[in-house]
Amino acid sequence: MKISIYINYFNSAHLLETESLVPIQTGRAIAKHRLPMLGDDAGDNMSAKNPAYCELTGQYWVWKNDKTSDYVGFMHYRRLFDFYPELKNRIVDAAGVVVEERFTKEMLDRYGLNDDAIRECVEGYDMILPEPWNVSPSGSKTIYEHYKSAPAHHIEDLERAGEIINATCPEFYPDFKSVMNSEAGFFTNMFIFRREIFEEYSQWLFKILSELEGKIDTTGYDASECRAIGYIAERMMGVFATHVLRTRPTLKVRYLRRVFVRDTKPYALCPPVPQSDLPLVSIVAATDHNYVSHMAALIASVFSNASRSRFIDFLILDGGITDDDRQGLRMLERLHPHARISFIDMSMQFLDIEAHMYFTRATFYRLALPDIVLDRPRLLFLDTDVVVLDDVSKVFDTNLEGKSIAAVRDLIMRAFVVQGVPSIATLGGKPSMKYLSDYLGLGDDHGSYFQAGVILFDLEKLRALNMSEKMIADLRNRRYWFLDQDVLNKHLARDVKYLSPNWNCVSLPAELGGVLPDALNREYERSIQAPSIIHYAGGQKPWDNFDSFFAHYYWYYLRLTPWYERVLARMVNAGPKTSTSARKSTATRWMASRIWRSMPGFMRRRLWNTAVALEKRL
Question: Which pLDDT tens digit goes with each residue over 437-489?
């Protein structure tokens, strides 16, 4: 028995998804952001009519495209059914709903929003309807009066719907009149119907709405008033249900309370702390499906080198990986006798913030860590493009000396400052020093700018400072060159315990070689002689070029994962890379490098961003 209860979404909100609960983005054809779920814009659809039909564009898509579900239903991202109708200790407000402040695991369990509870509640019934709501507390005597007095509603539109019913399906007209004259009705377009009844309802409803659409004059209507079709459809469900229950009294019907959630912001559920007698080392990294092979190499390197006297608690911020990805990553637990890999769903986070250059949204996830990982005092964040050659417990155990984080100074940014490399054009192309001093507000402390690929967080201190909320608000309200890394530096560059560069060993581009002050250059040289963590930041990645910076370490650890053959084959077969084309590519790079080095400093500074873009294409 397949039960599909579709949950209508139109914007980023907490994601509910199980075998029975199916999120669907309504109005996707005209949406600004594509949500990580099913959309109503494929196949036979009316997605573009969402401004008028509201969530009904989702119902239309399901009617035309889901032909396998035995039960079909609809709820909304913030309006849900209570699947424990036998419980009597619920408090219903004047609007006829149980109010919850926000989504939590306990809240979901409390209302049976899981497959087992849904199945037990639904199976055996023909129709699941919301408990009728009486409109009299709102000051109206009937549903007709309630519609007439509601803001953004025009009673003549509802009257036209009645005229269409009387003309096209007169057997329903007595039920229309009955519902309009009633003081209680079914609201919010929520229901679960056996398939045959759903088909019957949708056929009847969309025929009426199609005619109504051609008869409503929306000239002069504002955006809310233009949603008339959706408003009226809410009342039409009551008309249909009233008719079916009147004419088929043997149908089994169940009525469920509605639950309204005030705060629907997406939040991430962090798995509990592993139970172990060993001291814990908690690590976190972020990935989506495109980067999952590199995440695997990272995990293999951590587990291979971590102390066997510690428990490695590895958290993955999941920006959209598959079940197969998860299974493959969990296989890596066998590389360490005391390790667990857990996942935190981040697929609905930061959808309203655009990335640029080579960044993806996954880079933003670290900003939310203090508010997500609540039961661990500290956390070591690692970028997905790193491999670890040493025991991570050494850096995890760092004495922070009262600081909020530990990190490595960004030597590449320091070289940018020396050379006067300009920031991106959208930020005015300010020289790096001016960007750090003025735009980020670091002033004379611009040399404290750190690299965010390896960060040890004191989560308790960051929570006390409410730092996540401040940084995320900053990222939303202003553009930054290096996105969340810049935001982290803006708020924390004066609150850092600095680590040795070998804990975040990067490759300085050749064109920046020799520009660092002597002391920093010596630190850099020592880091590449004995790296503890290699960070393939910027430039050439080992999965693009076998000869890139410390690529052999990446390939060594990737060989320990299920992705080795896949990534290797992709590189070997990537396009028509014949020996001739490879030689041409090498020659082109060599010539470009010679030209670059021959340019005077002021020209290189001016052309830096263009050179970076060209280097990536070559």
Answer: 999 999 999 889 999 999 999 999 999 999 988 998 888 888 888 888 999 99
Per-residue H/E/C for 12-70:
CCCCCCCCCEEEEECCHHHCCCCCCCEECCCCCCCHHHHHHHCCHHHHHHHHHHCCCCC
Name residues whose C-beta falls within 8 Å of residue 445's C-beta, 6 or more positions apart in sequence. 493, 494
Question: What is the Cα–Cα distance from 69 to 74, expressed in whole angstroms?
Answer: 13
Distance, CA of 114 to CA of 19 (rounded, Å): 9
For 432, the enclosing helix (H) or strand (E) is helix 432-434
Using an 8 Å Cβ cutoff, are 152 and 222 in contact?
yes
Please say if the pLDDT value at position 404 is more than 90: yes
Contact 616, 358 (CB under 8 A): yes
Backbone angles phi, psi at 279, to 5 degrees: -60, 140
What's the pTM? 0.69
3-state secondary structure (DSSP) of residue 388: strand
Cα separation, 457 vs 382, whole angstroms: 11
Contact 24, 37 (CB under 8 A): yes
Put residue 379 in one of left, alpha, beta given phi > 0 → left and psi -120 to 50 → alpha: beta
95 CB contacts (<8 Å, ≥6 apart)?
A: 133, 260
Distances in Å between the alpha carbon of 384 and those of 31, 181, 387, 534, 596? 30, 62, 8, 11, 30
H or E element in which residue 254 lies: strand 253-256
SS3 111: coil
Contact 222, 157 (CB under 8 A): no
Q: What is the pLDDT of residues 249-283, one digit of tens each?
A: 999 999 999 999 998 887 777 889 999 999 999 99
Cα–Cα distance measured from residue 432 to residue 561, given in angstroms and rounded to the nearest whole number: 40
Residue 437 to residue 357: CA distance in whole angstroms: 22
The enclosing H or E element of 598 equals helix 579-598
CB 6 within 8 A of CB 58: yes
DSSP state of 280: E
CA end-to-end span of the chain: 55
Two structure tokens written together for 192: 């679960």
CB 549 within 8 A of CB 540: yes
Cα separation of 180 and 218, whole Å? 23
Can you give the pLDDT at residue 594?
45
Strand 191-194 relative to strand 405-409: parallel, antiparallel, unpaired?
unpaired
**Cα 549 to Cα 16: distance, rounded to the nearest angstrom:** 43
